[in-house]
Design goal:
Length: about 450
């Protein structure tokens, strides 16, 4: 692999061709594995109403949905722990080793989730086992996101980090498409009782079946040139966490602030709204999830476009337009949904929100990776991002449902989005744009 690192200089055409082939394989393996990981993670929120009926039968749909979303949020509590443990493993033993580990953990937890008997069969053990599986999923995802982001950015050719980094988020969009489409198809083909009885379990089993593909591809890919170069020059550290929290506290805080609005926008518009629209606004579940599928396509198409744009005009410029857009658009979007609760308005709202998210998600992985040196990149990036996701994103569906319940206003979640966007905007204004700066 030291030979691969030297090929980065592009000294020979044949060497450049070999490196391009290695890059393509690496990107494909990372994207497919990340797709499997995030598909498994997202479907819990997309099938929250059926999970609520199986594991939290309270007699009050809102209370049951709150319980399901709280369980969904519990998985995020483990993300910082996964970020520390798996991030440290990735910085000490390589990005490849960490990514192989995460996909295996996620597959196991997802399969078990789809096989847990309902509350009516085993009582309190049902929600307890569900929470345990969700904790394992959160632990796995805590290391996956940062590991995949670092892996792609470190494999990027000069001047294309934004584009390559955006592939991570593009695979997130593909996972949303697959998850939303599966929810839409199942809700259209099966009755409500069938969905509650067994239909919701199908995507969890499918997610487990797909996992070996991601596992195999990741086990065959080469380590990143940047990490191999750091090992060769002895530029690694045995204590990535300690070094991150002592020498790189300010960049970690920046990563935390930068990540907030993207994660809130994602989990409110893509996870909360479909379940809320189908359970509370009278929009059919099939229509709600088809709207989510269309919005996920918008996200997937525009994310790499925005990543490439950030290579041209800078990461901060693209991110600022998006964060300010959230501030201006959040209230009107929720007001429209409340005033005109139809399938057409839901599609419009989610597509606008997905375009803003694509603008933010496109450069996000890259700007976070550029904040840190190779020796602590996975650990530091994962800690900053996972804390933001845990505090603001994981409980976004719960907070949104709670705000509506307490205030009686279906527009209340807009306040949460606006506050999140303000924090990220201020963070962007305070940091220096690291676009295309040396990784070390």
């Amino acid at each position: 692999m030291s030979q691969i690192a030297s090929q980065l200089s592009g000294m020979e055409p044949s060497a450049t061709g070999n490196l391009n082939l290695i890059r393509r394989r690496a990107v494909l393996s990372c994207a497919i594995g990340n797709f499997v990981e995030l598909f498994d993670f997202f479907i819990f929120g997309l099938f929250a109403s059926q999970i609520a009926a199986n594991f939290f039968p309270t007699g009050d749909k809102v209370i049951s949905l709150l319980a399901a979303f709280a369980t969904y949020g519990v998985g995020f509590i483990m993300r910082p722990i996964g970020a520390i443990v798996i991030g440290t493993y990735g910085d000490r033993h390589g990005r490849k080793a960490a990514l192989v580990l995460t996909v295996g953990l996620m597959a196991s937890a997802t399969a078990l989730t789809g096989l847990i008997p309902p509350h009516a069969w085993i009582g309190v053990w049902a929600p307890l086992l569900l929470v345990l599986c969700r904790l394992v999923q959160g632990f796995s995802t805590g290391g996956e996101w940062g590991g995949a982001a670092a892996f792609l950015v470190e494999y990027s050719p000069p001047g294309k980090r934004g584009l390559f980094g955006s592939i991570q988020q593009t695979s997130v969009g593909l996972a949303l498409i697959a998850g939303s489409l599966s929810a839409a198809l199942l809700n259209s083909l099966l009755t409500s009782d069938q969905m509650i009885d067994w239909g919701w379990r199908i995507p969890f089993i499918v997610g487990f079946v797909l996992a070996p593909v991601g596992f195999y591809l990741r086990s065959k890919v080469a380590e990143t040139p940047a990490f191999e170069n750091a090992v060769e020059k002895n530029h690694t550290t045995t204590s990535p966490v300690i070094e991150t929290l002592t020498r790189y506290r300010r960049p970690v805080l920046a990563a935390f602030g930068l990540s907030i609005v993207g994660t809130v926008g994602n989990y409110v518009f893509n996870i909360f709204i479909p379940s809320y629209a189908s359970s509370q606004l009278g929009i059919s579940a099939g229509t709600a999830y088809y709207a989510s599928t269309i919005a996920a396509i918008v996200l997937t198409v525009f994310t790499p476009v925005m990543g490439a744009l950030s290579d041209r005009i800078g990461r901060k410029a693209v991110l600022l337009i998006s964060s300010i857009g959230y501030i201006l658009a959040a209230y009107p979007l929720f007001a429209l949904l409340s005033g005109v609760p139809t399938g057409a308005s839901l599609i419009l709202i989610q597509c606008v929100a997905s375009f803003l998210l694509a603008m933010y998600a496109g450069p996000l992985c890259t700007i976070l990776a550029e904040l840190f040196p190779t020796k602590v990149r996975v650990t530091a990036l994962s800690i900053g991002y996972s804390l933001a996701v845990t505090i603001f994103g994981g409980f976004a569906p719960f907070i949104s449902t709670f705000l509506i319940r307490v205030t009686g206003s279906p527009i209340a979640p807009a306040i949460f989005i606006i506050v999140s966007a303000i924090i990220s905007t201020v963070t962007l204004l305070l940091i220096k744009d690291p676009t295309n700066a040396p990784l070390d």
